[in-house]
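PROTOCOL LOG
Step 1. Enter all chains and additional molecules of the complex.
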Amino acid sequence: MIERDDRREGAGRGVGPAVSDEGRKPRSAAHEIERYGALFAERTRVMKSSAMRDLMALTARDDLISFSGGLPDTSTFAPGFFTELMGRVATGSVAKALQYGPTEGLADVREAIALVMEAEGMTVDPDSILATSGGQQALDLVCKILIDPGDVIIAEAPTYPGAVPTFCSYQADVIQIPLDRDGMQIEKLREALALLDSEGRRPKFIYTIPNFHNPAGVTMSLERRHELLRIAGEREVLVLEDNPYGLLRYEGDPLPTLYSLDSDFVLYTGTFSKILSPGVRIGWLVAPAPVLRQLVLGKGSADLCSSSISQYFIAEYFQAGPWIDYVRSLSELYRRRRDVMLDALAEHFPREATWTHPQGGLFVWATLPDYIDTTDLLARAIEERVAFVPGRAAYVDGRGGSSMRLNFSGVSEDEIREGMRRLGEVVREQVALYSTLTGQAPADRRGASGQGAQPGTAATDERMADVLPLSRKRAG
Amino acid sequence: MSRVAVLKGGRSLERQVSLKSGARVEESLRRLGHEVLELDVDVELVNRLSADRPDVAFVVLHGRDGEDGTVQELLEVLGIPYTGSRVSACIRASDKVLAKHAMRDAGIPTPDFFAFSETAFKGLGAAQALPAISSRLSFPLVIKPASQGSALGIKFARSATDVPTALVAAFSYDRKVLLERYVAGRELAISILEDSGRPWALPIVEAVPEQESFYDFESRYEIGRTRFVCPADLDAVLALKAQSIALDAFNLLGCSVFARVDLMLDAETAELYVLEVNPIPGLTETSLLPQAADAAGIGFDDLIARILAAATV
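Step 2. Run joint prediction.
Step 3. Record the structure below.
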């Protein structure tokens, strides 16, 4: 073995492959690693690939029932209608659809957006709307114009998993405020703000998903909406209201959006993703004029404009007729799927588990006993060909380890039943194993009576509350 | 020039790493002038191999089915020459429990351990033995699935109260788990490569985590998370000893052509311990075997050419 060392001509015992390679083999693999590694910006340190991401990549397989997506069911859109709409784009606007468009978005699309917002009780001037490339770009643009490294963003705990990498990539200091059944706990928010005050800091914005929260499935109460806005007004802090699912309500009466209650300190973002198609990649932002001007500049520098083809498609779609009917048909479909999932949870999950009862949206948030790590559980679940999003993805600070996000909108009723049966099996197996290991008697399985959802909901509230109010992570 | 089927991907939890490794190997094989068949292995594997009849199968699978002898057995049945270790060595090396027993019996140092199957707990009341296990090994313990190749499912137990949770996690990956004494110290990776039919230890790579206290799954495959030092800054006698132990482990398990042996150098006692032997180590941009070969003056293409040339039926 030592002979091998003798043949290492010129490879000194220096520190690091780059040193030992210098001047000898310019294209060596090790040298390239060091070279690229040194070029990456500081912010990429938090854009990490994770074990979870590798696990999630396995959930894309066809032979697996996946509750991990946030997918609307686009198979419900009639192919003939799509052909008709694109035909009109072709005959009426082909040159423009293939051309760059205005950064703010097509006038017709901004009018369509105003219509959608009107359906949720908001009156908005199309000129104050910026069309974005999906709701995800809206989050990115808001960070782009507001966040310097180390600035504070307040979010909910848990929060939208897709927002975590965005906030982190701008090196924000993210503070997560726990949710309960009525949304963000305002008292905890006040405590966090007071603590920040004592450090001489204040957040740039408060990020909230008031309706049918992703991933928690809860809805912010009217009282809390007013309180949040009062705080924002008093402190002159912006609120970023993310409302992708507001129109997908399956029970109860709609609550006014934050934007409809106070437009001075609210940045509002919506999307066509859940009411029409995520494939068109069109969302939007509404903001006070000075903020909007910056957002437009930010978007210009990011991608000049969103896809013209998509925007002409949307324009034709809204021209064609009652868009709200499609939303209603989706709501009906998803309501049934939600009910099937809630029933399946009651039937297959053990007594120790809790979960939320969403009045709309796409997700149920389930929490298992704290001795079960849902990232590890996912590995086992994939073996049984079923998948979900581990709760840790919804936190910046490693919490959420025993929770999971379950999507019901993108999975058929039969698949929900079968997938939840498999998942329940795996969970119960782990509960039983833990009982064996600790000598505790396994708890009785919840009966199939369907009455389980309510206790599940109540207990989840406690669990959500049982977290540190000011746990934070300096991203970067 | 040969027609080479690159077997990659599959259903293992290390699929992504395998795909990255596979892509690098394919590029290299093409540079070497070979015809490459890319095979992301699935239920069609045998059909495709039977139809395409490659001259050689280059196996870049990690974890279950790929590294544990399953695919190798199929290739033997089909009579297709393949790279790396043979079936029996893959079985021994990929099962950490088998490997550790063999090493302990042969006097190769490996951290003290106990291993249990799920049935021992379910059917034989092994839970009652946990206090005894804990006192025999002393905390902290590392608890890991027997066959998982990456760091997924590896947990620390700092005290007895951590053990049940860690076991539940480890049993998510395998029906058999290992409770192992934790060795605090430096992590050394020693890659072995055969030359003229004889295995040689390549220069030692030390993995130095940048942030995490533990050399975890995340930092293992990503640029910038772990600093690799090659050759490791070690006393010459100690380096020789480590390489010698690694070669002993390679030979004991019957590995062939190439492998990577992971060792711990105890920070207090300066004793060396073999953690595991990887019969198909990663071949990604940040993988340790290519780095070690590079430090020995063997470029990536040269490495791939050597592995390919040593493929047999």
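Step 4. Note key features.
The domain at 3-84 of chain B is CATH 3.40.50.20 (Rossmann fold).
The longest strand of chain B covers residues 185-195.
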